Structures are given as structure tokens and as C-alpha cells.
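Sharing a chain and its predicted structure for anyone who wants a worked example. Both blocks are below, sequence first, C-alpha cells second.
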Amino acid sequence: MYPSSLLALSGGNPFNAPRFQLLTEPVSPRTRVANEAAPPAERVVPRRRLAAAAAAPAITEEYSCEYGSAKFYALCGFGGVLSCGLTHTAVVPLDLVKCRIQVDPGKYQSIFKGFSVTVKEDGIRGLGKGWAPTFIGYSMQGLCKFGFYEVFKNIYGELLGEENAYLWRTSLYLAASASAEFFADIALAPMEACKVRIQTQPGYANTLREAFPKMHAEEGLWAFYKGVSPLWMRQIPYTMMKFACFERTVEALYKYVVPKPRDSCTKAEQLVVTFIAGYIAGVFCAIVSHPADSVVSVLNKEKGSSAVQVLKRLGPLGVWKGLFARIIMIGTLTALQWFIYDSVKVYFRLPRPPPPEMPASLKKKLGLM
């Protein structure tokens, strides 16, 4: 038997758990000798040790940082850099054709016509025009979009309180995403202006190194920020739909489609749900933001035009040119972005709260307990 003082000391150990409790039941010499000679599966285990093992809690997932910490927000921002920068760069050919359909629908009449004309005039390499400003601009946008979304969602949630944050969670997602996108578009605007100029104005510039100084010499800093207001018109509704629709779709999938709770799903199964919810959200995003996207494309191509002038000239039908191409592009983009972002969280072992549940205090108020 161990001294009682030693047992008391072990009980006060902050690392104390049933798996690490000292053995308090004596083992006879005969049993000890038999255990040493027997294979592991046939060894005798004292009853108290068996009871302790049975009562041991399941091993909980360990996180690399605390939810809402500076490290958490930094890694979320890094996930945004990868998710937006890589995906937007990967679909540059489709984005190029989409922009050309918007600014010159007579020449680029459809997706397939746009691709064939572009390859005929510029070759296969012509489909990659604008990749550098796309990668830089959307990496900066992703950093602000996803990083600030987590910041604002946490801040607004604390201001509302636990019960109101649950009841008004859709409004919470909308407000947090709109706030994040406001700053994200300021970071994106200069590179977006360069990208559109390279893609839609043949002969102007072929690379970012050519376009940036040329635009600055001709129009000054205004050349890079004249499209920020249309960007807000396009991106803020898009991002509000992207985050709110995604969050509620994930909640609905786990509630009505997935046959088990998220905690019981493997990481791979959770990422599949993320991808499906992301694609559904992306389709709605494309539809909501397409008119403003058409204005941005035309505005950044031309000199001296305003967003209102471009909108009047395009008319109610013209702003929908290239919608099909954008649905394919944005649906795929949004799904991949959420997949990459969630994969980064899994890889770095960041806290990933499950779909929201009604707080116990609210259930009590509503008589559900």
C-alpha cells in the first residue's frame, strides 16, 4: 500500500485523471509472477484499475490556440490568403473571358466563343493575362475578409449576448461579413484595377510591372481606387451572402441531411459538408453581385467614366451579360475557398465551433426544458 500522504498529493496534482491514478489495490506475488509470464491479453488487471479505465473520459481534441486569440485570428487570416489567392489565380482564364464578355459582348458572345477568340488572338498564354495582380490582390482581400470576419463575429456576438447571438445569428453573420469586406475591398482595389486593364484593353499592358506605373503616370492614385465604390457594391452583398448562406447551409445540412452530429463525423466528412455548403452559397453570391461586377469591369477599362454613367449605358439587361460564366466561376471558387479555409483550420488545429445550438437559458425561458 502507498502512504496516505502520497495518495493525497497525487489527488492534488493538476494533471490527475483516472488514466493516471495510482494503483491502490495490492497485487499478490503469485499474480505478479503470472502476469510477467503471460501474454498481455491474458494478464490479470485489478478490479479498481478496470473501473478507473471504464470511467475515464473520452480523449478530447486539443487545440493549438484559444478561440479569439491573436494567433487564432492570424491563422484565420493566413487561411484566407490561401483560399482566395490560390483559387482566384486558378480560374484566371475563366475570369478573363467573363470580363471580356462584359466589356465587349459583340466580340465575345459566349464562354466558348470567348475562349476560342482569345486563344486565336493571344495564344494559350493569353488566357493567363492578369494572374499576378489577381494573386496579390485576392490574397490581400482574403487576409482581411476571413480574418476580420472572425474578429467582427466574435465582437458582435459578445455585444449581443449569448441568447441574442443565437436568435439573430443570420444578422450577426451579415453584419460581420459586411464589416470585414469593407476593409478587404480597400486592399483589393489597386490590383483589381490593374487586372481588369490588362485583361480587357488589348495592347495596353501584358504584365503588372507594365500596367501599374503606366496607370499611375496617366491618372495618379485615382486610377487604383476609382473602382472601390463599385467594388463595395459588388463585394459586400457577395460576401454577406457568402458567409450567411454558408453558415446557415452548414447548419441545415447537419440538421436535415447528415445522419449524425458533426462531432461524430470524421474530418474528411466535415470537409465534404463544407464543400457542398460552399458551392450552394457561391451560386447565390454570383447572382446577387453580378450587376455590380459588370460595372466594375467596364469602369476599370475606361477612362473618365463614373459608375452611374456605366450603369445607365449598360441598361437593365446589359448588367447580366456573362452571368452563366460567373456562376460557374464563383460557385467553384466559393466551394474551394471554404474547403481550403476549413482545411487550414483542421491542419493548424484551430477551434472550430459546431453549428450553433439554442442556449440552455433560452430553452428554459421558452419552456423547452
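Comments welcome. The chain has one domain: 70-348.
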